[in-house]
Model the fold of this input.
Amino acid sequence: MRIAILLGFLVLTPAVVLAAALSDEQKAEVETIVRQLLTQKDPDIVAKAIEALQAKREAEDQAKAAGMIKDRWKDIYEDAEAPVTGNPKGDVTVVEFFDYQCGFCKRAHEETEKVLAEDKNLRYVYKQFPILGPNSLLAAKAAVAAHKQGKFLPLHTAFMKHKLPLTEEEINKLAKDVGLDVDKLKQDMESEPVVAYVNKSRELAESLGGRGTPLFVIGDKTYPGAMGTDQIKEILAGIRASATPKTP
Done:
């Protein structure tokens, strides 16, 4: 166990920091242990050490996220400006942070659509997290502006199903296809309220430890990455069976 812990420390600590942190005696001890490590009978010790440290870090991240979710509960679950689908009074709320240029988000969209079609007691909240460049930001602003015309979901769905880069030209075309007033949309996209809302949504995701998309928030936990229908259903079932707050 001592060797596994040390190995994980060596793997995850920059060499310069490590050298400065250890005395000559400690460095000699490290060298001895590393030599012992190389003769270990367990060939999986490296993987086990890294897995243990990753699990520890994930637990720490989840604890931090839980605290932040509690602190920013209203911003996450009670945002009156956020688009909502499913059952507005559902017993469980799922909040998704996404980027329209993200392939994993498009994949997740297909799965969540299936869950929403089956689960009639699910409340679903959409949050912008544009992190993949200018087109992502442009699409996020367009979606928020579309919500002002009551057409967020049609444009959101069109964006998620679109295979080409969401350039300004493509966004305008899709907006027209779903019945939006494109001139008003373009004007609203650059308005202070829309820009501020997108920035606030992105900041919120980052405060929850979001480093990529999609990021789901369910109850007092975060779930990074695309999830399949079975995984989502399992999480929802667990929340419903527990005493965790189910919806705002």
